[in-house]
Structures are given as structure tokens and as C-alpha cells.
Amino acid sequence: MIVGSVAGGNGGSRIRLRRLGVDTYQEAVVYMHRDCHVCHSEGFEAQSRVEVALNGRTIVATLNVVSGGFVSPDEAGLSEAAWRLLHANDGDVATLRHPPPLESLGHVRAKVYGRRLTPSAFAAIIRDVAAGRYSDLQLAAFVTACAGDHLDLEETVSLTRAMVDVGERMAWGPGMVLDKHSVGGLPGNRTTMLIVPVVAACGLRMPKTSSRAITSPAGTADTMETLAPVALDVPQIKHVVERTGGCIVWGGAVRLSPADDVLIRVERPLDLDSQGQLVASVLSKKAAAGATHVVIDMPVGPTAKVRSAQAAHELGRQLEQVGAALGLQVRVVTTDGLAPVGRGIGPALEARDVLAVLQRHPGAPADLALRSAYLAGPLLELGGAAPAGGGERLAMEVLGDGRAWAKFQEICEAQGGMRQPPVAPHRRAMPAPRSGCVVAIDNRRLARIAKLAGAPQSPSAGVDLHVQTGEFVERGQPLFTLHADSPGELAYAVEYAISQADTVHVTEDA
Amino acid sequence: MIVGSVAGGNGGSRIRLRRLGVDTYQEAVVYMHRDCHVCHSEGFEAQSRVEVALNGRTIVATLNVVSGGFVSPDEAGLSEAAWRLLHANDGDVATLRHPPPLESLGHVRAKVYGRRLTPSAFAAIIRDVAAGRYSDLQLAAFVTACAGDHLDLEETVSLTRAMVDVGERMAWGPGMVLDKHSVGGLPGNRTTMLIVPVVAACGLRMPKTSSRAITSPAGTADTMETLAPVALDVPQIKHVVERTGGCIVWGGAVRLSPADDVLIRVERPLDLDSQGQLVASVLSKKAAAGATHVVIDMPVGPTAKVRSAQAAHELGRQLEQVGAALGLQVRVVTTDGLAPVGRGIGPALEARDVLAVLQRHPGAPADLALRSAYLAGPLLELGGAAPAGGGERLAMEVLGDGRAWAKFQEICEAQGGMRQPPVAPHRRAMPAPRSGCVVAIDNRRLARIAKLAGAPQSPSAGVDLHVQTGEFVERGQPLFTLHADSPGELAYAVEYAISQADTVHVTEDA
After folding, report:
1. Residues A83 and A109 in one domain
2. Which positions fall inside the Pyrimidine nucleoside phosphorylase C-terminal domain (chains A, B) (predicted)?
3. B367 and B235 in a common domain
4. Is B73 on the interface with A (CB under 8 A)?
5. What CATH number does residue B456 fall under?
């Protein structure tokens, strides 16, 4: 049965919607049966772009034609991304038609041909990108056309501005607003939860939005959430920052530089180096968040995103120049690219490490404290709380005398109340198979074990590492302990950990 | 329930397959429930690339994570493309694991950076493309990196060779093998069915593989199939050509330049001009088909793929030069870009037009005969059957004296027996709404009406056009007749035709 309406023409055809629950990684996909009359009357083909309109909202989705039984001919199934964008409810009747031509693709073609794009060309492209009018293939073409060194400084500024302009922008009134960013997404997550209270304790303002885990066992937002609420809206965030000078919240509730989220999704699997896009991505988020002074942590090393001092220098200069064009003062700090492992892997276990540093426990991970102070230092200098070269030392003092801990508690209370991180009911220690020296720790595998144990969905789940590279261990001494919410998840993680016996590699005796 | 096997590790995890019937336009997609243990144990994330191995066949698919009920946690659903590539049967148990790293993407990145690629770099990329190891995003990046004028002559030769090398190659023994191609996919389909018998009737060899309709109401293979079998395998094709000198068969059963099929799927929606890729696409198919002499029909005009004489000249020169490097003699013929409409739209109706020309009926469409002779001419000259400049005239003679008709019957018999095209049981004439002059005919809409009537799935369905632009008609005189297999399809097409009243536009009286 077709719901109402004449077939074809510009008015489109009406059809009932159904939620299919397919996570297409944010691509809007519409699934229609090959015998669906709307497909025929509108002339949709496999892979057509289809405009779906519902209650004043309009999206463009890619058509997948279905011959199996899970979509019937009188309904249109939607992927999760499409469902969310339309705010649809099961049984809603939407209007489907061909979308208008995507004029801004002409600018993408011009870029492919090596032409420079004007600010208005970038604005047109980014408006369409943020509105979801580009298919994944078209996004990949745009990303590729801008990759390498295909964007000059002016174009990068135009792209960054265009990205800021299509989203929300937080306003903080007069005065400095500090922020930090780590290039390349190396862990370092836990440093944020120490840097913010240090900076805020020195009387500076640092509203920090963070992400949840995408592929890791814990994002900063997941870890912070074991200690305080993080899903705050803009008025709540403002209230917290006004009261305490800082916050550590989840950025998902705030629509900052939404085009960046769309582009990153495509950039990640392509893994093309693109200095212009990296700069636009980082700075558009910071400008939209209302920052005025930004410290950028740039790990340099053979396994980091930035591999040489020369590359770091060039990228750093472009970040500073584009930042200046947007009214942002940017300071780039290169680090050694060796991420601190701390002890815990998983939200609650990582929160425990942070608390240990803040509470000045004797066994707190020193690497985490040092790295946090190293990055907080330049922020304190930029903010005028410390003289040039004196920031790191001040940060260590603030961590060491309890001021950071007091400020952290204050922030947690303002965000909705501090709480104790949960403790996993099921644990298993993995013993050293022999006596010897720990010669290597495979962090990638430890992360996978933590995820098998349930992190980050189970905040208490994860891996607690007891040894460091270079340490001598006795046979039978625990190398790490698995934490899980259920016996099943524990068994699952244990099975995998046993199959990967050299995750923490102890030398054979000679 | 998980089928057998230890979780994780390099051995992969085993899981039951299910056919979902989703046409993703040839992208291999695997749908797994978010609670599926294989996802967890292997560490697959949304949009992971997943290697699926079954009975010695291996494909790489993109993961869509499903939370809805149409895939259960103990099975992996496959898209039609994945199902076909694996030769799977419902309930088969496959092994899933992470695919090995895609080394050839490094060459794509180098191309993005503007470097020239070596023959072995193209070979590595094209091997992976043909094997389905590139995701759609990665394909789009490769296509974009090579678009515009980013490939020089040598690179285009390397790309073409690489594309030929990964597929089948037909061998015809010593002597010339003629072929033709039309750039830009304008209809012109029907000319092939006239050119082949003309050329073969002159003692030359012309084995022609054609495609089925993708978005049109009829491909050459669909039209030919109403007159004779076309789904022949390589030995059968050879037998037909040995006996008659020509054939008109479906190319789908022969795996010529399979990488081209993969790339075209992505190139089409991106619509990037890419001379190098166009040349590689056309010539790789021709070289793989064993052609030695090729005539290329290049329509030039404001609505054609090639828009100016200058562009036609450059593209033509590159086709000839790359052809020469591959041992192909290429001759480019520019045409006016106005596609012949003939009378019929739809497989059987188009076949009827072809037969009318071959059988020299008084009412046969003259434009179809003229255009076929215009393109057959250079083939006859290349093949030495006619002197320079005398090919078109010879072609007209062969069409006019019945030799082409005799040869066409011979070819049909050799392909399995000539038959009568079916006639639709349900028809409806659409009358002129007023007396006046036909000032415009909207071919795109006529094609859509033909598809609504059931073409090409119903070979007899389509539109029979009775008038031409510039003709005077009386009120009530039929402009075109709809043909359909069922009353429902007829009613559907009629409804649409009425809603689009000016598809054949007759002037208002002044």
C-alpha cells in the first residue's frame, strides 16, 4: 500500500518509515524494497541519493535496494544516523524525492583540478557537508582533494572559518579562555583531568569538552563520568565554569563544528596526511568552544602522527598562523610521543590513577603527574599565572600542595556531585610465567583485553597493570589483573589474555 | 551460540552466514549484531574492514553494526555483493578476521602528494582493487587522486596495463579483431546490432560484448536477447565468432578488466572528469577482449560527456597514444552528441527498430541506419575492406542489399537460434491534446515512462514513439503508445504519463 499522493513529480512520494537499527557509522542510508512503488515512481536506483522530509526536517540518504524480507514494499527502513537526524518515530510518514543538485560539488571538482578555492566556495561546501548532503563517496573526494599540501594558508583559514560558522559557538564574555588539544589522539586522556584543576586553581578559566571512547577502552568523558556527571547542556556548563573556573564535560551535547565530525569519520579510515584539514579540525573546535589561548600537545616520534621535528615545525607554524587569523593565540608543545600508560586501563581504573595523583598517594603514577605538569605549564604561562619558563614548576606545586585536588572536588560538585568510581566484582590476576625482566608491554593488546572485559560500557571493567618495562619479576608474581562486571566477560577476557601470552613479555632465562 | 573456535588471535572466529538481500550497489557489507561475540573477540568496530573466508574464497567487507532484530547475535548477514563473491549458501559457516594491512594505499597517498607512480605501483593498487580489498572510501580517494590531469601518458599506460592484467584476456589468434566503443554512454545502443553484421558481412572479425541496462530501459544485451541467446561463455563466444565472424553477447559472463567495473561504480556518482581513467577504462576492456583495431565514437556537444572540439582532440590523441603503447590501433570519430531516438524504447521495441532497418522496411528509422553506417565506415576502412573515405558508403550498401540482414540471422542462429521479439499484451495510445507542432520531446521522461511500464525486466514493455520533433499533428492523433506486460504496470505508467503532459510537447495555437 502506498500512503497517499500522486506518484512522481516534484512533490515527492509519501511512505511509512521504519527504524532498522543499522549503525552505518553515521552515514544516512534508506533501505527500500525493490518492489516498492515509491522507488519506481520516483525513479530511484540502487545508490540513488534520496531526500527524506519529515515534519520540517530534511535529510539526504543513500538508497540501498533490498530484495530480502526485512523491509516490506510499503515502508522505507532507515539507518540509525538517518533516524536520529530526522527525529523520526516508528510509523511516521515521510516524503521522499530526488534531492536538488549539489552545486558545491563544482568547487570540489575545481579543487581536484588544482584551483584555489575562495572563502565563499569553502562556505558552500561546508554548509552542505554539515547538512549531510554529501554522500560518503563525495566526502572522500573532498578530503582527498584537500589532502597532502593542497591547501595554502589562506584556504586553511577559509576552511576553518567555514567550519566554525556552521555550528554552535560558545561565548564566555571578556577575558581569556584557555584550552588544550592533543594531536593524533594518543592516550594522554588522563592528563586533561589533572590539567583543568591545576589551571583553574591558578585563577584561570578552562572549560574543557571531551569525547567518549570511539575505539579505545575509555575516553576522557567516560573516565570523568565515574567521578561526576558529564552530560551537561550549555547553560549548565556555563554555570559550572562561572562558579569554579573549569569543567570537564562531554562535548556531545554541544554542537561545535559539526562539519568536523562528518569529515573526521571519513578521514580516519583513509588516513591521508592533510595538514590543512588537521589544522582546520583542531582550531574550528577550539574557536567554536570560545577559546582564546590554546596549548597544543604534539607528540613527535616514529609511531606518532607527526614523525619528524621538521614536520612538527611546519605543522606548528601553520597552527599558530591560522590561529592568529582567527583571533586565537596558539602555543605548540612537542612531546616525545611515548604515551603514559599509567596503571589502569578502563574508566574507573583510570579515574583511580587520576585520584591517586590528586590525593598525593605514595604509589601514584609519577609519569602521569609529570606529563600533566609539563602540559599545564605553558597554559599557566599563556594565562599570565606564571612567568615564561615557570609554568611547569607552578603546576607541580599546585598538584603537590593539594590545591588541584581541592579544585577538582569543587568542579565535580558543580557538575552535579562527586562520586566514588565503581569497583569490579570479578577479577583475575595474570601471573608471570617465569622469573625475568619485563622487556615489552603491548599496549594495543592490553586495550583489547580491557574491551573484552567490558570497558567502556562497564565503567569498572578493564586491566590493572602492575609492572613496567625494565622491571624484574618473580615467576607467579601478578603482571596485570583483569576487572569485569560479570563472570562471563571475565572468562572471555581471560581466555583471550591466555591465548596472547606475551602481551607483557618477560625474558626467557638465558 | 558461537560456532567453534577460540576467540581472537590470527586464526579468526567462525560464524554462520545469512543472506540479507541488500543491494549495496556492489559494495561488500557484513551486518553483525552489536552483541555478537565475534565482533567483541575480534575487536571489530563499526565500519571495520572484515575479512570473510569461506571454502577457499576470501573477501573483505565493511562492517555495519546492527542493534535491530533483523540480524541475530549468532550470525553474520551479508549484502548481495558479498554473498555473490563468496558463492555462499544460507547456513554456511565462515571465518572472520581482520584483513592484512592494505600496503598499496601507500601508493595512493603518494599520488595524493602529486608523485608519479610506477607501473608496479599501479599493478599493486589494481590487484587490490580487483580483489575487492578497497573500501568505497578508499576507492573514492584513488579515483580523486587520479582525476583531473593528474595522470600523465606513461602513468595512463601503466594503469591500463594493470587493469588488463588482473582479468581474463580473450585470444583470437592471428589477424585483425575489430571493436567499437561509444564514450559517455549515450544511447546509440541499437547501432551496435547493425554495425556488427555489417562489419562481419564484409569478411572482418568483430566479437562484441555488451552490457545490460543499468539505469536505462534497455541495454544492448537486453535488446539482443529478445532475438537470440546472449549469455554465452568464452568457448561458446569463440565458436560463434569462428563460424560467423561476429557476435553480440552479454559481457557479464566474461571477466574482462574487472577492476574497471569496480572503479566505474565509484566514478559515476562522483562525476569527476578524469581523462586518464576514462582512457584506461575504455582501452583496458578492449585490450582484454582481444581487439586489435578500435573505433571510438565520441559524441561532442553541450550535453555530452565531451563538450568542446578542443577537449575531443586532446582525449582522442591520448586514446590513440595509449592504444598504440598497448598494441591497439585506435580511431576516434566525433559525432554530434544528438542520440538517435529511433521509435521504440524498451528491449523488444528497440529490437523491432533494428529488424526494420535490417529487413529494409519502408518505415524503418532512417537516423538509425545512417548513424550505424557512419560508425561502421571507419571500421571497414581500418579493416581494409574499404578504401579511406569509402567505408560509410560500403556500410550503406551492405545494409541496403540484404547482406547485413543475412549475416545478422547467421549470428543469431550461431548464438543459439533466432526468435521473434515478444509483443506486449497491454497497450495504451496517448493522444495529442491539441493540433499543432511537436516542438520538443523529453527523452529522459520517456525513458522513465518505459521503466514504469516494466522495461527492461519485461522485455516487451516500453514506449513506442510515433512522432518526431518538427512534425505537425492533429488533436487526438496518438503521440506515443505505452506497452506493458500487466494491466497494473500499464495503469501505473499511464498515470505518470498523464501527470507529465508535456513529455511530447505540442505548441499551443497562437
Report:
1. no
2. 437-499
3. yes
4. no
5. 3.90.1170.30
In three-state secondary structure terms, B247 is strand
- Domain residues for the domain of B461 are 426-506
Distances (CA, A) of B190 to A338, B356, B357: 66, 12, 11
Residues B303, B389: one domain? Answer: yes
Cβ contact A228:A411 at 8 Å: yes
Q: Is A495 exposed, middle or buried (0-12, 13-18, 19+ CB in 10 A)?
A: middle
**Domain limit, last residue, from A78, A97, A116:** A97
Q: Which of A253-267, A491-505, B388-402 holds the top average pLDDT?
A: B388-402
What torsion do the CA atoms of B385, B387, B390, B395 make, to the nearest 10 degrees?
0
The model's pLDDT over A112-135, given as tens digits with 9 standing for 90+, comes to 988 999 999 999 999 999 988 999
Residue A4 within a domain: no
Interface of A with B in 86-105 (CB under 8 A): 105
Q: Is the same domain home to A93 and A120?
A: no
CATH code, domain with B159: 1.20.970.10
Is A301 part of a structural domain of the chain? Answer: yes
Please tell me the total count of domains within chain A: 4
Residue in B75, B112, B458 to test binding to A, most A beta-carbons within 10 Å: B112
| B343 in the same domain as B212 | yes
How is B484-509 classified by DSSP, letter by letter?
ESSHHHHHHHHHHHHHTTTSEEEPPP
Chain A positions touching B84 (Cβ under 8 A) are: none
Q: Which of A140, A215, A452 sits opposite B141 (nearest CB)?
A: A140
Judged by a CB distance cut-off of 8 A, whether residue A141 touches chain B is: yes
Q: Is B115 on the interface with A (CB under 8 A)?
A: no
Complex ipTM more than 0.85, yes or no: no
Task: Supply the pLDDT for residue B341.
Answer: 57
Task: State which residue of chain A sits closest to B145, comparing Cα positions.
Answer: A144
Question: What pLDDT, on the 0 to 100 scale, is given for residue A7?
Answer: 41
For the beta sheet containing A462-465, the strands, ordered from the edge strand earlier in sequence to the opposite edge, are A344-345, A462-465, A478-484, A426-431
Give one DSSP letter per residue of B371-398, joined into a string: HHHHHHHHHHHHTTSS-TT-HHHHHHHH
Closest among B425, B443, B430 to B345, alpha carbons compared: B443
How many residue pairs bridge chain A and chain B with CB atoms within 8 Å of each other? 168
Show residues of chain B in contact with A451, CB under 8 Å: 40, 43
Picking from A414, A439, A467, the residue at the C-terminal end of a domain is: A414
How far does A440 lie from chain B, in Å, by closest CA?
19
**Count of Cβ atoms closer than 10 Å to residue B481 Cβ:** 16
